[in-house]
Amino acid sequence: MPHTPRTLTAVLLLGGWFAAAQPTAGQAGKKVYISVDMEGLSGVSGDDQTSPGGAEYGRSRLLMADDTNAAIRGALAGGASEIVVNDSHGGQRNLRLEDLHPAARLISHSFKRVGMMEGLDETFDAVIFVGYHTKADTFAGLFAHTGSGVVRDLEINGTSVGEGGLNTMLATWYGVPVVLVTGDDQAVVQVQEVATEARGVVVKRAINERAVELRSLEVVHREIEEAARAAVAAARRFPPRREGLYRVRLQFRNSLYPEIASAFPSIDRPAPDTVAFEAPDMPQAYRLIRVMYRFISP
Ligand SMILES: [Zn+2]
Fold first, then answer.
1. What is the pTM of this model?
2. Angstrom distance (rounded) from CA 287 to CA 189
3. pLDDT, tens digit, 9 for 90 and up, residues 197-243
4. Active-site position among 89, 133, 145, 221
5. Ramachandran region of residue 5, left (φ > 0), alpha (ψ -120 to 50) or beta?
6. Which of 52, 84, 135, 228 is the least buried, fewest Cβ under 10 Å from its Cβ?
């Protein structure tokens, strides 16, 4: 059987890869959105790393930039021409511009109406989640929580979601695929239950909510870069998928939050520790969920 000489095959394969990886001349490349949290970063294992004032916080800011830069390098190799990074942890002013790859723009600080997804709209081609963690009460998920420590569970149209699931639902509303998630092993699997097409990079193994087995930073950064390259190269937008109505149930760890939240018209209280409401669209549902868990304080 005739076959192509090996060198020619290599040239053809390389040419194909190059064509897929580079935007065609005169044609804009892809626009990529990267939302970066802190708990699921490589090298992060303790409370003193995740809030300003913590002894190891300064180290974590660099670790945050390192994982993010690996994703940016990969996205560029995969055909991105525009990259927006949204600092999505705590007060959302953890990433320093001087540590970030120059190809990206940085959304920094709060208040943001859609927090971890601020700035996302239908003009983007792909979403990447870096440093994500599991939802509240997940067995063995490192730093497991949803939004803040006060939430026990969040349900949207009957599906229980954490931050990754909620953020995926917003991206779906805009027709933008979530193509990659990085975090601990439990978080990656959990986010992929909603972001079903997303690739995953496991940067550490959660032993329980506090203990973790860390993988080599060097190896993890290589894996994030390669996964981001492949994910962005393969990313395809889809027509926005929109439900007619978004029914939200938010269960808290105490009854004081619902006590206050139920003062708003149209907020129901089906149980002492739970509020429920309906929103006509996902952005509005997202904004109201965020107000409930973050900006109501008994
Ligand atoms: Zn966080």
1. 0.90
2. 26
3. 999 999 999 998 899 999 999 999 999 999 999 999 999 999 999 99
4. 145
5. beta
6. 52
